[in-house]
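tool_call predict_complex ligand=zinc ion
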Amino acid sequence: MTEAEPIPDMIVAGGTLLTSDPELPYLEKGWIIISGGRIIGIQDCAPDKLHPSTQVIDASGHVVTPGFVNVHTHAILSMVRGVAEDMGFAPAYTIGVPHGHDPTPDEAYAMAQLGGLEALCFGTTTINDTYCHQDVALPAMAETGIRAFGCGRIHDVDFTRVHLGEWSYDPKIGEQTLADAAELIANFHDPEGLRTGVVLAPHAPDTCTPDLLRQVRQLRDEYGLRINTHVSQSRVEVDFIRERDGMSPPELLEEVGLLDERLIGAHCIHVSETDIARLGRAGAHLAHIAKGNQTHGQIAPTHALCGAGMNLALSTDNMHADMVELMRWALASGRLQQGKITDAWQPAKVFEAATMGGARAMGLDAEIGSLTVGKRADLVLFDFRRPHLRPLTHVLGTLVHTGQGRDVDIVIVNGKIVVSGGNPLWVDKMAVLEAAETAAAALWIRARAEQLAHS
Ligand SMILES: [Zn+2]
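tool_result ok
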């Protein structure tokens, strides 16, 4: 090492690298050199000399990947875990479950921290989250060590009525949710540090009027932000927009100037051939909710959407934040649409989607998403010294087909260890679990009381 080079803060030594960088996708044994929160070197042998202040992480027996990027989540919706999966429709549209207008700030904090912690411990280092009270949810998630991006739901529908089947719009609600987003930008948008950030989140075409969507576009352009919204999630939404605006949801997004390479579209299930072509032509990003949608018996036409030109990124939507499991669901659903195993749907495609595809969707592909010299040091160390992860004949195939989020041993974000031995270092895991349990119990008591009142 020459004197001109910085002294490494950390070396991750001797792991098997899956980099998600096409220049060097695989290294059987690699050393990752980290300084100032960035990767400054990747090499196939140990450095000649070690500075005494450099922390060495022994990665032998481990597989090292970039941190996963989960592009569309609702961490607070961990409050409906174990229930929403078996209901006919999204929680926002259903009576008798806790809704976005229900949590107090303290409850939102507790549930958001649970969701963020779950994601981080399973190897997600960047999350893009949308729900309520994001002024407390973003810091709650960031305190775990994860990069927390997001926005409160922007809408002008009266959400206290939607689950009762009423879509009534109030411009004052739109003004308030836009003002909340502007405040979030002022307090949390940090394009330099990337510890927290804002991706504007108009909730969905049917919960926003075209006028509000145009105002969102203005705010987006003012700050150079991305957009994260639900698109063609349900037949109800598609039929509603057809009746209200005389067009499909993707057409509406195009009409209001939001359909372009800055759009992260979640779901994209009920899309026509012209919608698919429109979304692809725009270069929009698909937040493919591979597990959540199939759990509800539905599937986005991923093969056609990718073929049309959409960038494939993965997301868990309501929390169950195991990105390894999610890769498996995405691979299987891609193959189901073709009815066979093809070159188009191989482990490399879904690994790319979980890492670089997500980074690209977030507009952060120059900074995160791969193990590349110069990028931020966001790394995941999977402990492969386990029966279900041997032999190491094809490491990526084994990770995608039999790996699990709970095989994660160490997570490094921005060059700092935030998970070790599968446990968080920045927050007290048991305290997070207990606070979330208390919050969820209170929310469900209130939701059931509301249901009784309407029965
Ligand atoms: Zn969603």
